[in-house]
Amino acid sequence: MPTVMIQGTASDAGKSTVVAALCRALHRRGMSVAPFKPQNMALNSAVTADGGEIGRSTALQALAAGVEPHSDMNPVLLKPESDRGAQVILRGQVHGHMGALDYQAYKREAKASMLAAWEALSSRYDVIIAEGAGSPAEINLRENDIANMGFAEAVDCPVLLVGDIDRGGVFAQLVGTLELLSESERARTRGVIINRFRGDMALLQPGLDWLEEYTGKPVLGTLPYLQGLVLDAEDSLGLEGRSQGEPALRVVVPALPRISNHNDFDPLRLHPRVALTFVGPDRPIPPADLIILPGSKSTRSDLAWLRAQGWEAAIRRHLRYGGKLLGICGGFQMLGDWIHDPEGLEGAAGAAPGLGLLEMETRMVAGKQLRNVSGRLLPEGVPIAGYEIHNGVTRGPALERPLCELVGRPDGAVSDDGRVLGTYLHGLFDQPAAGAALLARCGLEEAGEAVDLAAHRQAELERLADALEAHLDMSAIQRLLRC
Question: Which of 176, 332, 371, 468 lies in disulfide reach of 422, CB 3.0 to 4.6 Å?
Answer without folding.
Answer: 332
